[in-house]
């Protein structure tokens, strides 16, 4: 199983502030992901990375940006937070092998609940 | 494109009874994987069980089993001997050649004592 850490768990911030949501994993997984989830709704992929210096935008358009300079670290940044960014942000990483079979099982961090006033 | 459909309204089950959560899917990939995740009110996503499209047997993990019917494109989750701690939202998800997960809208399960 993966150990995925996200900080902060909760963040309340004013409009226009720059924020960085941290995500780290200790299992050496190459693939990492960011999802956005509104309360009681499905998850939407906003960014993913298949390795160092590799980042791609997901299915849901987002004003956030990501970087992947180290395998274990995948931070998400909002240059200027707005109330529309209020949501939960979940980070995940995946391994490619499960019992010898190629499977990309994604393991999630605890999430960051962001509120922009 | 891949799609997951979860249409059940909120589900209720008596403690110690079994419950089935429905999931149907659509995909054009010949090889794919199906996942179930649990999300308690605290917000984290907990991986429960995986079924590969070419797996001959239905997956089982403790009290969780996946009723995989490929021809019907369904992957229902069965929870046996429900516990109060099973109360949560449950998400079905699918992945294909691009390794990206597509989630359904989720089902809320409430376990009654």
Overview features:
heterodimer; A: 117 residues; mainly beta; seven-stranded mixed β-sheet; four-stranded antiparallel β-sheet; 11 strands; 0% helix; globular; B: 113 residues; six-stranded mixed β-sheet
Give an overview in words.
The complex is a heterodimer of chains A (117) and B (113). Chain A contains no helices and eleven strands. In chain A, 0% of the residues lie in helices and 55% in strands. In chain A, a hairpin with a 2-residue loop joins strand 9 (87-98) and strand 10 (101-108). In chain A, strands 2, 4, 5, 6, 9, 10 and 11 form a seven-stranded mixed beta sheet that branches. A four-stranded antiparallel beta sheet of chain A has the order 1-3-8-7, with no helix packed on it. In chain B, the strands form three sheets. In chain B, strands 2, 5, 6, 10, 11 and 12 form a six-stranded mixed beta sheet that branches.
Brief overview:
Chain A has strands at residues 4-7, 10-13, 19-25, 31-37, 44-51, 54-57, 65-66, 76-78, 87-98, 101-108, 112-116.
The value of Rg of chain A in angstroms is: 14 Å
Count the beta strands of chain B.
12
Strand content of chain B: over 45%
Shape of chain A: globular
Radius of gyration of chain B: 14 Å
If interface size is counted as residues with C-beta under 8 Å from the partner's C-beta, which chains form the largest one? A-B, 27 and 22 residues
Oligomer status: heterodimer
Distance between the termini of chain B: 41 Å
Classify the helix fraction of chain B into a percent range: under 10%
Distance between the termini of chain A: 36 Å
Helix-strand makeup class of chain A: mainly beta
Largest sheet report of chain B: 6 strands, mixed
For the sheet with most strands of chain A, the description reads: 7 strands, mixed
Regions of chain A with pLDDT < 50 over 5+ consecutive residues? none
What percent of residues of chain A are in strands? over 45%
- What is the residue-averaged pLDDT of chain A? 90
The shape of chain B is: globular
